[in-house]
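Why predict the complex rather than its parts? Because the way molecules touch one another can change local conformation, and only a joint prediction can capture that. The input here totals 280 residues.
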Amino acid sequence: MKHSVKTSWKQDMVFESDLDGHKLIMDAPEAAGGKNKGPRPKPLMLASLAGCTGMDVVGMLRKMRVDIRGFNIDIEAEVTDEAPKHYKKIKIIYEFSGDDLPMDKLEKAVGLSREKYCGVSYIYKQVIDMDYEIRIRNQE
Amino acid sequence: MKHSVKTSWKQDMVFESDLDGHKLIMDAPEAAGGKNKGPRPKPLMLASLAGCTGMDVVGMLRKMRVDIRGFNIDIEAEVTDEAPKHYKKIKIIYEFSGDDLPMDKLEKAVGLSREKYCGVSYIYKQVIDMDYEIRIRNQE
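Output of the joint prediction:
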């Protein structure tokens, strides 16, 4: 199977990608010569990771009949000071809310995504120091 | 320096990331239990790569006083059949248009991005077989 993404330069630092018909504008922030018309390219690596592992986890929890009410994925990544400026460390916080959530099943779903299913994690973890945490948010 | 991306699950396979204030919806295609409300997560790895190397190249060509009229980046990636389904091979085509473009300068700018500046390429090329080509589009 192949994935294709076509990207065209619009002006200045603005680029537009076509992702299976979905348009995505990228731009540099003002400090880097752009006009901040869209996200910077590098953090899209983190959105890709969040979506990949998130969809795995939602799918597995559904199969395990674990009923979650909310689910957030917060990613923080450390960037090197020297070029090529890249992510050297990524921390992912998986935060769930719901009634009486079973931590063992949450851990199992997250672990299977990280170790077996998520093809984005698979690439990053060979180069980047990856760490994670699972939290259950207390109901207010 | 740190980059943070917060992502929240909306419903079904729909996730929304906040990238420095820019919202990005991701979804699975219908064949994978989604409703195709946004791009799939994995190809965002390719948009990230295109934007990263594209901004490098535009910035360097400007410094070299090379005046391009158009610039497209087409990326094709082969996905493995087995889980974790990941990109095993990526081909990038850099296509430029403009008057009397100097191929040596285009090659230099692309090469510097790939070898020295692009922090997205830096990660991927350690795991994925990466190949590229530079084309100058003939004027019609």
